Amino acid sequence: MFTPKDHHYMSLALRLAEKGKYTTHPNPRVGCIIVKDDKIIGEGFHVRAGEPHAEVNALQMAGSKAENATAYVTLEPCSHTGRTPPCATALINAGIKRVIAAMQDPNPLVAGSGLKMLEKEGIEIASGLLETQARKLNAGFIKRMEHGLPFVRVKLAMGLDGRTAMASGESMWITGSAARQDVQRLRAQSDAILTAKGTVMMDNPSLNVRLSAKELGIQGAIRQPVRVILDSDLSTPCNAKLFSLAGESWIFTNSQNTDKSHAKVQALKNAGAEVINMGLQGRLPLKLVLQELAKRQINEIHVEAGATLCGALLQEGLVDEIVVYMAPHIMGCNTRGLFDLPNIDKMQDRIDIKIQDIRAIGDDWRITAIPITQNK
Fold it and tell me: DSSP of 189-227, one letter per residue?
């Protein structure tokens, strides 16, 4: 159904969409190419929520030439009015003759209605061109819309023997500067960075993006991901470094309703944190926390934590991707592993993963894998 030229132009639209990787939160990353007589007459991508969508930017560039042209868009044009008017209406008014979408929009407010609106006006439509690539580009947005959960990426660093920290907890720095800069880009594309109170108390991390706009290749200010701390008993120190940095900090807790907890909540608020009490007993339920984050429009979570939280997320089938940086070190047997998985005693209980990519990052190796035994 699709020609080689269709594939070519959609590939270009996907490259455009990637330019919004660090800026579109909480909206999806979308690119659009408008072609007429086998020439590109308009192109655009969505930059930030509240600003024009990819189709509108491309139509603005095309001007009156858009009449009877073909639009290649990486996500179905929207059909509802949000912060901006419907893109389907803009395409209709411009006289576009044909619209090819990489995929339908999983947002219930659209979900095929944009394409139907175009078809009703006599515009030729098609969907599904390079859909796999399009879904990968917006894995977090799609998962939030389809499952009510964010996409969870766990980042870890280890020596050649699979160890991630010394027995004392010391772990700075296992990897080299190139790998650490690569992690900064993973942070920058995420909506939130998730950790546990133990990591905050042990390492006093910043958990922020420390690359410049120029280094990220974007215009305007850097969007700092929300820092999310799991702290069932409100042990996080109020003088933690991350509270003094730009960006929001959310603390999830199960703290009981006592004078002491009220005082600590107020102290944390004074430090700049938002405290979210789940109102439950004991350990925080990870899936409920993730569902709450999805309700708060968090698409993509970057996890930087110890073996306990990483192991619990993996054990509960809540991890979508694992990124491990392997450094050329031997750290010894009196050290800590990547995941705390106490319930795995037999080979049949092991968690299988599928390695997607292995590449050198400076002197280290980055391994990207997905768990294939999910229990969602």
Answer: H-SEEEEEHHHHHHH----S--S-HHHHT-SSPPPPPEE
